Amino acid sequence: MASVKPADDFDPEEDAKVLRKAMKGFGTDEDAIIDILCHRSNDQRQEIESMFKQAYGKDLIDELKSELGGNFEKAILAMMQKPAVYDATCLRKAMKGAGTDESTLIEIMCTRKNDELTAIKEAYTAEFDRDLEEDLASETSGHFERLLVSMCQANRDESYEVDEGEAESDAQELFDAGEGQWGTDESTFNMILALRNFNQLRAIFSAYEKIAGRDILEGIKSECGGSLEDGYLTIAKGAMDTPGLFAERLYKSMKGLGTDDKTLIRIVVTRSEIDMVYIKAKYLEMYEKPLKDAIEDDCSGDYKKCLVRLVGDD
């Protein structure tokens, strides 16, 4: 369930007028910007952006950039991008320049649905005149590269059907490819984790536990390492409990000294119109603290207000 829903009685002209007033003259009315943009769906924000330019001959994004700063600006600009364009932009930034941000690649490529991945690939080419699969292949290597290339095909079975016999067969294959032999046959893990629907994966993991005597997460941790392990675990956790996966990533983004604002913004923005209500419930269950309180403890100012509004301040 989404924490951000389309506003009733939506009037893009009135919203554009409020935003113009909030940024006109000396000073900026950040609260007005938050009140409008954090309570509109992404589609409605696109309409406001178009109306703003039509009415005032100015680009809303440019105006926001000139008036805002820091993480508050980053969060607002993330909200203003279409979901596929935002994901594509995050992927490009994760691979551009020195070093690669594997965590971002994993989060996006291993959690998005087929239609979302297809839209991301198209947006990546349209925005950057580059091929996403080629960039992923050039920035990563080995079995981790193969996993990301598999995800890039956007061809997972997304039915809800479960075949118990196939599940037992796949579970035995996973066991034989890992704990049942010396060394690990990663291609078997890749094939099963990349192709099977989530209901089928849950059945496979249940059968695996009976065969191996421990759960699939422990099996993956014992057989793999580094980014490949993180990728496999993300798919497995997503199949078992998607809200729990994102609750854990949110917790880690705010845990300890400093905040991983990039991850915090990305998850709050991208899940606010999908399943943030479930993520909040899972966060409370797992960490015995409301997500809103965690954000308020870790962030400050207008940035804090913005994120709290997006997750829902109930």
Polypeptide structure, described:
The chain has 19 helices and no strands. It has helices spanning 12-23, 30-37, 42-56, 60-67, 70-80, 83-95, 102-109, 114-128, 132-139, 142-152, 164-177, 186-195, 198-212, 216-223, 226-254, 261-271, 276-287, 291-298, 301-311. 37% of the residues are buried.
List keywords for this structure.
314 residues; mainly alpha; 72% helix; elongated
**Total beta strands:** 0
Instruction: Give the fraction of residues assigned to helices.
Output: over 70%
The assigned structural class equals mainly alpha
Mean pLDDT: 96
Task: Indicate the low-confidence ranges by residue numbers.
Answer: none
Task: Offer a quick outline of the entry.
This protein has 314 residues and is mainly α.
Helix-strand blueprint:
Blueprint: H1 12-23, H2 30-37, H3 42-56, H4 60-67, H5 70-80, H6 83-95, H7 102-109, H8 114-128, H9 132-139, H10 142-152, H11 164-177, H12 186-195, H13 198-212, H14 216-223, H15 226-254, H16 261-271, H17 276-287, H18 291-298, H19 301-311
